Amino acid sequence: MIGSTVALAFGSYFLAAASPGPSNMAIMATAMRDGRLPALVLACGVMTGSLAWAVLAATGISTLLATYAKALVVIRMLGGLYLLYLAMRAGRCALQATPDVTRADAARTPPRFLSLYRQGALMHISNPKAIMSWVAIMSLGLREDAPAGTLPAIIGGCAVLGIGIFGGYAILFSTARMIAVYSRLGRWIQGLFAALFSVAGMKLLVAPG
Predict the structure, then answer these.
(1) Domain boundaries defined on the chain
(2) Contact at 8 Å (CB) between 63 and 134?
(3) b vs e for 2-22, b when ≥16 Cβ sit within 10 Å of the residue's Cβ?
(4) Contact criterion met (CB below 8 Å) for 34 and 109
(5) For residue 192, with 0-12 CB atoms within 10 Å meaning exposed, 13-18 middle and 19 or more buried, which class applies?
(6) Residue-wise pLDDT tens for the chain (209 aa)?
(7) What is the dihedral of CA 168, 80, 88, 29, to 10 degrees?
(8) Read out DSSP for 84-120?
(9) How is residue 158 annotated by DSSP?
(10) Could you give the angle at the alpha carbon of 185 between the alpha carbons of 182 and 191, nearest 5°?
(11) Residue 4, SS3?
């Protein structure tokens, strides 16, 4: 019983975390633009936001948020505005000259790790998809007939999966081949991310109720 429940929760989390979304797009863009370490820092922030919702869902707070529509509306609005802010930043980068990623490290602007970490955490905390995904996942472990240890197993296992997924995006898109692609097509890539962030942000802002 516990095995099937946990496996179902893992599968649900994997699909939710690995599917294209604002957090994964931001990790990909950072990896190609700034390299592996900054992307991993951003991924750590995303993972922190994900685990924050896991803990809240486990304690029942996310269930209360789902009950009170106004709270979800506020979170959705804040998330939409934040995505539009990221779209503006990406658009500004797209209007600039394509960065030379092969220049010496000393000539590059040092990455602001705290800012990247905060960006990842805020992006995921303000994502209604993350809230509802964890509510659904935790409902599997919060049932009255769930064996003891189910909830910790779900949180721990999903944490490992999340690290692998978000860290995997950071590593994959920071390879020399992907950086070379960004060196040639950086403006177009940033323009694409600006458009995707804009669509996602507007979708949150205009979504009914």
Answers:
(1) 2-14+23-206
(2) no
(3) eeebbeebbebbeebbbeebb
(4) no
(5) middle
(6) 456 778 878 887 887 788 777 888 889 889 988 889 999 999 999 999 999 888 887 776 655 655 665 666 776 677 678 778 778 877 887 777 554 444 444 445 556 899 999 999 988 887 777 777 777 777 666 665 667 777 788 888 989 999 999 999 999 999 988 878 777 777 787 788 788 778 877 876 786 65
(7) 10
(8) HHHHHHHHHHHHSPPP-TTS-GGGSPPP-HHHHHHHH
(9) H
(10) 100
(11) helix
Does pTM surpass 0.85?
no
CB of 31 within 8 A of CB of 173? yes
Please name the amino acid found at residue 43.
Answer: A
